[in-house]
Amino acid sequence: MNKLDFKKTLIISSYAPPAMRGAPQNMYYLFKNFPPSSYCLLTSYYNIDNISAQKGNWLKGKYIF
Fold it and tell me: Cβ of 45: how many Cβ atoms within 10 Å?
């Protein structure tokens, strides 16, 4: 399969990386096992979840703030 054949998913979340509690937690567990090149996250720099940032629980994909 050619690299151009892969589709990329855009995750839009008001909290980064997304937050590790509540509904965004499901999104985190879904995408943490995806290849980092298969998705990117569009999120707000001002809503970074401090607990996740301190623990290093960021998803490996590209973040766009």
Answer: 9
